[in-house]
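go over both lines:
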Amino acid sequence: MYTTQNNYRDLEILFKLVGVLSAVQDGHYPTNPAKGCFQGDPVYFDPENTSHLRDFYNQLMGLMDAAPDALFKCVYMQQLALLNQQACHPTPVV
């Protein structure tokens, strides 16, 4: 069976991806992981503002381009861990 491993670069990108998503979920304008933040950047994310949406999209796609298969590998490895846990500790049938 072929398994895939995340490397430290993948994890760094995934943490940045989670940071961007969390910021927007909390209503904050996400800091661009590649460029940092600037004094003129908005504080709050406005989902009705096309500029905010475009920046958000560009940040997500930039992170995905930096590690194209990192998200897939993370989900795949999590699935394997859960399947392994179920195989090692089966749920008792009542």
Notes: The first helix runs from residue 8 to 25. The two ends are 33 Å apart (CA to CA). The chain is about 55% helix and 0% strand. The chain has a mean pLDDT of 84.
